[in-house]
Prior knowledge:
By secondary structure, this protein is an alpha+beta fold. Helices cover 39% and strands 19% of the residues.
Amino acid sequence: MSEAASAQVTLANSTALLPSLGPLLHEWLPRQRWFAGKGRPITAFSLVSATEILPVERTGDAGPGLLHLLVRVHQPTMPAQPPVDCYQLLLGVRSTPPSRLAPALIGHVTDGPLAGRTVYDGLHDPRLASLLLERLRTPGRLGALRFDRGPAPVPDGLAPRVLDTEQSNSSLVYGNAYILKIFRRVFPGTNPDLELPLALAREGCGRVPAPVAWFEAAVPERLTLGVLQPYLHDAQDGWQLALRALATGHDFCREARALGRATAEVHTSLATALPTPALRRAQTDQLAAAMVQRLEAAAHAVPELVPYVPGLRTAFDAVTALGHRGHSWAAQRVHGDLHLGQTLRGTDGFWSLIDFEGEPARPLPERRSPQPPVRDIAGMLRSFDYAARSHRPWNAEWAARCRGAYCDGYAETAGTDPRSEPELLRAHETDKAVYEVLYEARHRPDWLPVPMAAIHRLATVAD
């Protein structure tokens, strides 16, 4: 990735820009939900590109400016963590921000080209957020940025609001008609959250909202920065629906079965649209070895996991053994991080799948590689268990019925039952539970008992 700033305007080219912002970013970045380097000190910043989407006024107290930055954040190397991550920042710049922008404040700049100005997260400024939509309506280049859209026109004048949910990116909703996902941590290559919905749209799959517009950078590698899609404002996410069913004592099997059918439809369309290689011995060895590596890294970070490592490894060893006996599996592009929170049910009962980015903690090439479809199945099975264990008292039978109904629905549409390959399904469910343990230990320690219960179960499954 190039270290050069984009040749846009004097401010963007200023070598003093990033050093002047550095002290503020040191304090602000680690507090952001989407910052992946929590727990590690920031040692340096380096500028990848800077573009003034709305030029910053040099004098007086005129309107706001919008500065787009791609910044590398350097941190000490730790197991399974990169030493450098690239982040996308959209900074609003004003002399005196109004009080309503106080929650988005980053700080006051004391030197450099923005001396005397205050910077803040520009997505929280309706005027600047509206400007982003306007740029997406009119394709073209601006500095390091390139804006594109599909054939359908995007209306103007839609009021923006920041979607206040816990996630690894940032989202803007425009007039309850569109949602713009801003990828905060960016990687070279096309993000699957753009690539896969575009491929599904070409196949006519209506289970996934089709991208309407998007923007990228070339510095010099291609980076996906944001995707605009229809906003299903009347839909409810599967996680909340499941929790409501648990709280009211209602069965969720009908919904789980329909969701299994929706997942199978998406998998079938992806298999038609994109390559479907076979996983033979060499690929199976790599798959199992990567799972073992993730297990060892998680155990290094979470001591509670250590006693279970030998039992958990048997799940991965079983897949390796089958590969050595000549067994192979079909692979294809998949969702990569499927759970109830990545699904939406409309008022007509129609299920949609969203957020095809995959697990953000994993490298982009891995997220874009073909995988066995049971990886998505395992993620959803774990989600039913999560829902059941988040309810008091724990309803193990509810989770078991939902898991069975989901697999039944999937088999009805796909023609293959994911339970017919128990070794592969167990390995992927184990891998997912290990990921959950690491995530909860870092971000939500109070939730750690939920995946640890699954770890206990999966580690004691008979070979």
